[in-house]
Specification:
alpha+beta; Creatine Amidinohydrolase; 2 domains; two-stranded parallel sheet; two-stranded antiparallel sheet; 5 helices; 12% strand
Length: 150
């Protein structure tokens, strides 16, 4: 990106960076390699743009929520003692790819993030599934999303 700005003759322009989303070392790299640029924090500009949703965006969000709901229902059907975590995940993924209410998942990552872990590994957040088997009385941590693109 920095090379592109130099090549395009924009190395001395005003540059907005989302400072909350950049590692500190990346922001420093921009400041060091673009000493003539006026770098400003543009977090609020992007946040405000994300707040306003079109009718299409709202519709797609509802479709994604329906997919997540369907996946969670399927999870409650298949999570049982003596079932392997990968088998549970496979059922959840299949449901998410098929979608809900006639709308399949879409995009480059139609399954999106998916985390499932059972006792004794539940002390760590966002932990991927293992080859383990769910035991009777296990705590289950499950994070499921639905993915749709308009």
């Amino acid at each position: 990106m920095i090379d592109f700005l130099h090549d395009a003759g924009l190395a001395n322009c005003r540059l907005g960076l989302e400072m909350n989303h950049l590692p500190a070392q990346t922001a420093e790299k921009f400041k060091k390699r673009l000493p003539q640029a006026r770098i400003v924090d543009s977090n609020r500009a992007v946040d405000w743009a994300w707040l306003i949703k079109s009718d299409l965006e709202i519709s797609v969000i509802k479709e994604a929520a329906a997919i997540a709901d369907a996946a969670m229902v399927r999870a409650t059907e298949v999570i049982r003692a003596d079932v392997r975590e990968p088998d549970v995940v496979a059922e959840i993924v299949a449901t998410r790819v098929r979608g809900a209410k006639g709308k399949a998942s879409t995009g480059f990552t139609p399954i999106g993030p998916l985390f499932l872990c059972s006792s004794p590994r539940t002390r760590v957040a966002h932990y991927p599934w293992s080859q383990g088997t769910i035991r009777h009385g296990s705590q289950i941590n499950l994070e499921v999303t639905g993915v749709r693109h308009g």
